Amino acid sequence: MNVLHRAWLVIQRQCELFPFLLVTEISWIWFPIQSAKLGIIINYRKSFLCSEMFVRQKMRNFVIMQQEFASRLLEEAVTELSRLPGIGRKTALRLALHILRADESAGTALGQAIINMRKGVRYCGVCHNISETDVCPICADSRRDRSCVCVVENVKDVMSFENTGQYTGVYHVLGGVISPMDGIGPDVLEINSLVERVAAGEVKEVILALSATMEGETTNYYIYRRLAPYTDVRITQLARGVSVGNEIEHTDEITLGRSLLNRTLFADSIKR
After folding, report:
1. What CATH number corresponds to the domain at position 170?
2. Boundaries of domain holding 114
3. Which helix (H) or strand (E) holds 120?
4. What is the pLDDT at residue 257?
5. Which of the residue ranges 170-184, 206-220, 251-265 would you say has the lowest mean pLDDT?
6. Are 44 and 33 in contact (CB under 8 A)?
7. Are 211 and 194 in contact (CB under 8 A)?
8. What is the mean pLDDT of the chain?
9. CA nearest to 8, candidates 27, 24, 30, 28
């Protein structure tokens, strides 16, 4: 049995197990065999070795996905952990085994903390930030300037602005941005509640603090149009410009152009 024949038998057997993996490899190796010369055969033998390594890697990944666990409870834990964003079954298995090897108290504490968080944390009825009460501590703080509302995408953005220590107003968490490709429209977001807050008459300024992406800019424009009837409300957005510590040559053209258009007096910058 020559090398090419053995190669074909191996690939044929692999394809019986994984018929969806090697459609291109079959046509790539099999058809030139019919009229191949010696030099071409050697080249295709090398190519076959690469293809076989590819198949074996796919087989290992497939086995990990379909493997039977020694414990049904372990399998359930891996399945649930793999539902988390950025966690595959390999990582989920590693995490589950780590929890299993750790002290029982550590695993119990982790599980109880997740249960407590899920049952105890709710969303603020005013700004939709996370809270353990009906109104979050920021909205309940009398020292906050309620006439200034900073519109952000999610709870992480609230944490980022709070860490700066520069903002003393309140927030409004949309819960995302408009993204038709992902099926997220304006009705899914907390935009109507924002309009209601502005319509109440207490808000004097709305800061659009969304990411400088296509989805973020689309959401900014939509909110701007919704708030256009309230002419006495000032609608602003975050400054766009060169980041502190960045060099000009490494700054993209759009950011650099906005920096020029939104330039400020140097004297104002040193007063802050």
Report:
1. 3.40.1360.10
2. 72-119
3. helix 104-120
4. 78
5. 251-265
6. yes
7. no
8. 79
9. 30
